[in-house]
Specification:
Layout (H helix, E strand, L loop, with lengths): L2 H28 L20 H66 L4 E4 L3 E9 L4 E9 L5 E5 L10 H8 L3 E4 L3 E4 L2 E4 L4 E2 L2 E2 L11 E6 L4 E4 L4 H5 L3 E7 L2 E4 L2 E2 L4 H5 L6 E6 L5 E6 L12 H10 L4 E5 L7 E3 L2 E2 L13 E5 L2
Antiparallel strand pairs: 1-2, 2-3, 3-16, 4-20, 5-18, 5-20, 6-7, 8-9, 10-11, 10-12, 13-14, 13-17, 15-16, 15-17, 18-19
C-alpha cells in the first residue's frame, strides 16, 4: 500500500473516533456522577412457605387413611364372622354326615341285638361297648356277650401268670390285669405239673412255644392288628402271619364259616354229646359274640350240643363261629363277678383267658 493511501485511512479513523474522544475528555473535566436508582436492581423478596395448605392436605390424608382403616376393620370383622359361620355350618354338615354314615351300623346293630333279647347289663366306654344277655332255651341255660371293640387295647389274650405252663382262673386274670370282662380261652394239655396251651397260641404278637401246623380238627382263632376275628386251619406260619395276628388260641371244632354251618366231626358229636360250652363268633360289622352255656358236669348229660350252638349262631346272625374249651373250663366274668355256674363247682385254672378293658 502507498504512503498516500495510509495517510488517507488514518484521517478517516481519526474523524470516526473524534466524537467519542471528545465525550471522554468532557466527562473527565466536568465531575459528573452517574447513579443508578433502586429500581434499576429491584430487591428480591423471599416469600415464606404456605404451611396451611400442606396441613390441610395432611389432615385430608389422615382422614382418608382412618376411613380406609375403619373400612378394612369392618371388612376383616365380616370375613371373621363369615369364617366362623362357615366353620359352624361345616361342623354341622360333618355331624349330620357322621350320623347318616352311622345309620346303617345302628340299624344293623339294632337288628342283631333284638335277636338276642333285652340286655341284662351294658358297658360303654371309649374302648368298647359290651352287652350281657341271659338266654332261655329249652335244653340249657346260656349267656350271650356281644362286644364292639373301639380301641386296639380293648381286648387281649392273657397267658396264665404270664408264663408258659402257668395257669390261673378267669377271675384271677381279670383281677390281675384290672379287666372288665373275662372269658376262658383255648384248650390245654397238662405235663410235669404245668398246664400248657394247646397247639398254636399267640400272645402280644409272639408265638408261645412256636407255630404248630393244623392237624385233624384243630383250628386257630384270635384277633388281628385291625381288631378283626381270625379263624381257621393254617398249615404254615407264613399263612397265619399274612393275617397279622395279635393274639389267639386253638381248640376244636369249627362251627360256622361265612354264615354256613360246618360238618361236625363224628367224635365231637358224641364225646360228649352235651356239655358246658364256650363259643366265640363274629358279625359282619366285626362285633364279637360269645355264647357261654351252663352244664352240671362233663359226662354228656347236661349243657348244649355243638349242633344246637350252630343253630343259635345262625339265629343270632353270626358269620363265623369257633368252639373254645368247654366243660369245667367254661368261664364268664362280668364286671368282677362270675356270671355262669362252673360245672366243677368253682372256676378252673386255665393257661389262656380272653380279657376286655372298658
Amino acid at each position: 500500500m502507498s504512503a498516500a493511501a495510509i495517510r488517507s485511512m488514518n484521517r478517516t479513523l481519526l474523524l470516526a473516533t473524534a466524537p467519542f474522544l471528545g465525550l471522554l475528555a468532557w466527562l473527565l473535566v466536568s465531575n459528573v456522577e452517574l447513579a443508578l436508582s433502586d429500581s434499576a436492581y429491584p430487591a428480591h423478596k423471599l416469600s415464606s412457605p404456605d404451611w396451611s395448605a400442606g396441613t390441610a392436605a395432611a389432615r385430608d390424608g389422615l382422614s382418608a387413611a382412618e376411613s380406609l382403616a375403619q373400612g378394612t376393620g369392618q371388612s376383616i370383622r365380616k370375613q371373621v364372622e363369615l369364617y366362623n359361620k362357615t366353620n359352624a355350618d361345616m361342623n354341622q354338615i360333618a355331624e349330620v354326615a357322621s350320623k347318616q354314615a352311622s345309620r346303617p351300623y345302628q340299624i344293623y346293630d339294632k337288628r342283631i341285638t333284638s335277636k338276642l333279647g333285652k340286655p341284662a347289663s351294658t358297658m360303654n366306654s371309649d374302648k368298647l361297648t359290651a352287652q350281657l344277655f341271659y338266654l332261655n332255651t329249652q335244653n340249657f341255660k346260656a349267656y350271650a356277650l356281644k362286644i364292639k371293640l373301639k380301641k386296639d387295647d380293648a381286648m387281649m389274650l392273657a397267658l396264665g401268670k404270664d408264663e408258659e405252663g402257668g395257669s390261673e382262673t378267669t377271675l384271677e386274670a381279670v383281677k390281675r390285669y384290672k379287666a372288665a370282662i373275662g372269658v376262658n380261652g383255648g384248650g390245654f394239655a397238662d405235663g410235669g405239673g404245668k398246664r400248657y396251651p394247646l397247639s398254636t397260641t399267640i400272645v402280644d404278637g409272639e408265638y408261645v412255644g412256636g407255630f404248630q401246623p393244623t392237624i385233624k380238627d384243630l383250628f386257630f382263632v384270635g384277633m388281628s392288628e385291625g381288631n378283626k376275628l381270625i379263624g381257621g386251619k393254617f398249615s404254615s406260619k407264613s399263612q397265619l402271619d399274612a393275617h397279622n395276628p395279635k393274639f389267639g388260641a386253638s381248640f376244636v371244632p369249627i362251627l360256622l364259616q361265612n354264615g354256613r354251618s360246618t360238618e361236625i366231626p363224628a367224635k365231637w358229636q358224641t364225646s360228649p354229646k352235651r356239655a358246658p360250652r364256650t363259643v366265640i363268633a363274629n358279625y359282619k360289622d366285626d362285633q364279637l359274640l360269645f355264647l357261654v352255656v351252663d352244664g352240671y358236669n362233663e359226662k354228656g348229660s347236661s349243657g348244649a350240643t355243638l349242633a344246637e350252638l350252630q343253630i343259635l349262631l345262625k339265629r343270632f346272625g353270626a358269620i363265623n363261629g369257633y368252639n373254645l374249651d368247654g366243660g369245667g373250663s367254661t368261664s364268664l366274668v362280668w364286671n368282677g363277678r362270675v356270671v355262669n355256674n362252673p360245672s366243677d363247682g368253682q372256676l378252673r385254672k386255665l393257661p389262656t383267658n380272653f380279657l376286655f378293658f372298658a
